[in-house]
Amino acid sequence: MSLLAKPCNFCDRPVPKGSGTMFAKNDGTVLWFCSSKCKKNALVLKRDPRKLKWTKKYVKGGIRKK
Ligand SMILES: [Zn+2]
Questions:
Q1: Least enclosed by CB within 10 Å: which of 2, 21, 23, 59?
Q2: Where residue 38 sits, what CATH number does that domain have?
Q3: 14 belongs to a structural domain
């Protein structure tokens, strides 16, 4: 087991070991969330973290469309 913090799957902030929430999807993918807020946004609200300013994945000026 790694002692390094894992990045939150939603906001990309490091999740210290021993905190945060682990979520295992039916297909075997394991997701880590730093807080219930991130988990809810990702799983219940299905928001795009690139559109939310409080996440580290936020893209300034919006997402470029091809
Ligand atoms: Zn998070």
A1: 2
A2: 2.30.170.20
A3: yes
Residue 27 covered by a domain: yes
Q: How far apart are CA 59 and CA 55, in angstroms?
A: 9
In the reported structure, the alpha carbon of residue 20 is separated from the centroid of ligand 1 by a whole-number distance in angstroms of 8
Q: 22: part of which helix (H) or strand (E)?
A: strand 21-24
In one-letter notation, the amino acid at residue 64 is R
Q: Separation of 32 CA from ligand 1 center, angstroms?
A: 8
C-alpha of residue 27 to centroid of ligand 1, in Å: 21
The total number of structural domains in the chain stands at 1
pTM over 0.90? The answer is no
Distance from Cα 50 to the centre of ligand 1, integer Å? 13
